[in-house]
Amino acid sequence: MSYRVLLVGGGLRLMARNLFDSDSLTSAGECAFIDALEVVQAQSPDVVLMDLTSVDALDAIERIMAERPTPILALDPKQLSREEAFRALALGALDVMERTPAPGPEYWHSIARRLTMLAQVRVVRHVQGKLKRLGAHEGPEAPFPLVAIAASLGGPKAISQVLRVIPKKFPAPVAICQHISDGFTEGLAHWLSTETPLRVLEATHEQMMEPGSVYIAPSGAHMLVRSDGKLVLDGRPPVRGFRPSCDLLLSSAAEAFGRRCIGVILTGMGRDGARGLKEIRERGGRTIAQNAETCAVYGMPREAVQIGAAEEVLALDRIGPTLLEWVETC
User: Is 205 known to be catalytic?
Assistant: First the structure.
């Protein structure tokens, strides 16, 4: 099957001449930012490749996602601030990747593989249901509650909406594993710090977590938590293709924090995080999966629901308030 790609941004067609080397992608044309919505409505592409060379690109993303939602991959050539790349995600782009100064054929082949995957993203429905909380954790009491969050495609926007309602004096740290292109986690931490009153940091090895702070797993390392409240960055190989791994973060949180842990799995493709979320629930912690209707991609949360890992299945706007309620009894 071949997927149709609309290129948005001047000069992309010439630059990306190797994008259509395989049979998996065909061109749906190229247009300027100002014409993007009109062309999407007329051409119905399967996926959009957006070059972030102007703030007009952000307006185009916002209009497309409001009027004719379509998977969008944003390319960050660093002409705007890195914060603008995360604004693109907040406005609805599914993913962002760095555009190198002189991208060659291999770069465009990697972009083609990403576009092929994004073109297949569809939100699916499921029957929601509340699940009973499982057994209790045995072991030493953790020093404070912990919220551990797993997310992938569509995650930055979802995370920002959750954190936005959490006050500065939140009595738990928040540890986050977000699948994102290498080199973007520092920018993600900076952008999220403008979206929430909480302190947001890219995690460092053996860093002591503090309530009211958010820790982002950095690119190229697994992030684990210890029962003494410290973070560990682990360089072992990727787990089922991911480093950092959501499963490793959530599993370590289950073991270290037991009933004092709240696990959350947000929008994302695949299964990473579902097993770890189930471990949290089995050890007496509390667990949430985002519902299908509010997910950009209902993959990871669906897997969590199917294996019985989710105590609650909630709309995105209910997750933050539920964390505020639950943390008081952890």
Answer: no
